[in-house]
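re: ur question from earlier - yeah i can do the single chain one, its not a big deal. heres the input i used so u can compare w yours
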Amino acid sequence: MSAGRLLSVLLLLQSRGRMSARGIAGELGVSVRTAYRDLVRLQAAGVPVYAEPGRGGGYQLLDGYRTRLTGMSEGEARALFFAGLPGPAADLGLAAEVTAARLKLLAALPVGLREEAARTAAVFHLDAPGWYREPEQTPHLPLFVDAVLTRRAVDVRYRRWRAPQEVRRRLRPYGLVLKSGVWYLVAATESRTATYRVAQVLEAALSDEQFDRPQGFDLGAYWTSYLDDFQERRYTGRATIRLSPQGRRRLPDNVLPEVVRAVDSTASPVGDDGWIEAVIPTESTEHACGELLRLGVDVEVLAPAELRQAMAVTVGVLARAYGVH
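and the output i got, formated as tokens:
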């Protein structure tokens, strides 16, 4: 039996009023049978819980009864930062703490504010991952949460994009960042501070080593600087393209915002048919070819020559695959 869960049942009834056993079970992620057992145990402990039979019935507290047992545990206090973010909280292994903390907050509020909080929660929902992809699997994320909070080093096996692809590192975690549904770990090695994609961690184990985070380290400032540096390293080339009016309308759905902004800032009309010419940043010939081919006949690459040639070769291969000669 979980004393914490019994308290959660009590706070649910205090903050929501009448609830069915099925509703309580759904809120706490337990079976209906477990909810019934918890209600009986509350009654046995002297809590004035009574059942209202019939349609629309359920369990509720005797009018006027309120508990003051709303003190929060350390885990629940941490979870407050994620009270409005159930998805990330679950990723971090804090789903139960978030539920308990939210119930305690609701129970401590006056009735009017409690109703307003419930209305607000009912009309906002966060879905962090981007379109057209499944959320990444991050089984080691709770371990990194523990490492960040206890300042313990972690030994990892990590898969990266360059050779050698698999490396082993001892990391000293400084913080975690959620970016567009993807979790990143900011951590130091012996030589530098770097960013690691949590889904690329193949193995992770807490070590006995304790470490001190550098005084004055600001996770938000580090992340902003990292993004700026990433953009500079990412775009190493330029391409001149022509776009039809239809291509320009389709642009935001097919390329990154940086490319859209570049088109908007460099576009100049060519002819009377609405086509424009613009200069865009590129990562590589292969990447730019794949991105621009999404626009089909609504784009033409003018320069550089190697990108124009790559587009022509790809289109030729496609034409032959479809029996066009």
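The radius of gyration is 28 Å. not sure if urs matches, ping me
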